User: What shape does this take?
Amino acid sequence: MALSNKQIEYLQSCGHRWNIKVGATGSGKSWLDYAIVVPKRLMALRGQGAAVLLGNTQGTLSRNILDPMRDIWGDKLVGAISSDNTARLFGHRVHILGADNRKHVARIQGMTIEYAYGDEMTTWHEDVFQMLKSRLRCAHSYFDGTANPADPHHFVKTFIDSDADTYCQTSTIDDNPFLPVEFVENLKKEYAGTVYYNRFILGQWAAAEGIIYRGFADSIAAGSNQFIWPNNKPIWRVHIGIDFGGTGSAHSFVATGVLPGYQGAVGLMSQRIPAQGTTPDDLYQSFLCFAEAVFTSLGKIDAVYCDSAEQVLIRGLQSYLRTTRYAWLAGRIHNAAKISITDRIHLTAILMGGGRFWYTDQAEGLRDALASALWKSKGSGKDERLDDGTTDIDTLDAFEYTIERDYKRYLRLS
Assistant: This one.
């Protein structure tokens, strides 16, 4: 079993109460844990407290740790998660828990924890982490965890910099000698010009600030044709996103073309109309005109994803469409998935960086919204997009509704 220098270093140094690997995506952090660290810790348990594995959600913990651990060690040593949120791992009963929500605090409250493992720590709710700190109360309790860097003010970074008994190892993507060179090069291109390059390539704690899509904005400012759709591949599916405006905002429609196999996305058309003074009937008529233009140009509309916060407007739009020759479209209207905004930004950034996003001259509103999107400078430790009325958040939301449901497919994670 070949190990990198960083992995050997960690095994030689992880005798502290808190042992945390922080670094780039693909730097080998999790592999070391499910192959060696977690099995070793579990087999050394003395039975004086509980063993707990925590992740963003139970599902992500299964995919990131349990499934690959099972591939190495087999079903007999790595059991399935039972209905009581535990699994038999290397002969021990281990609690398998999510940590993304404050409600999970109750699940570890009152426990004495002999060993805890933490996956994707920067995605946890802070209250869960604070409760965990008080539960590791055996003299020999250990914690091993991994994290991709986030904002420098994040609570995990604050804890690492405290006087706790902590060993923290930082790694870059180049610290993993086993990754294919082509994969590393492509990943660097996809993240270039964004905060994700600092975090996921260099392993640095970096604030999300300034222009979100810097490479895209610079290309537009330079008059480059890099992101203009060359119309050289067939459009496989057409999705429309609708963001309903409120006070101080606008209604926005964006049509996006999906390439076969989710190879990329094309901003085909966009339109923004003032919310103030626009009646629901005005809105429905405007959407019908937009949909007609899309259908006339492309010959298809596969789905319409709407801001799920406005159910009355959605039902009204469906009723209106049923009275028109586009009655068939009423059945293709769905609620937007509304995954986290940071995940939507991450997806858009990767599509841009990987040369998999384009726009047409009928989507200039979308172009301008993307080029002017800004991070909110706050210093709270959280990544937030600026939403104070000075940028076109409405068009960004509408566009993101058209791609977010296929997040894993675009990132080739499914």
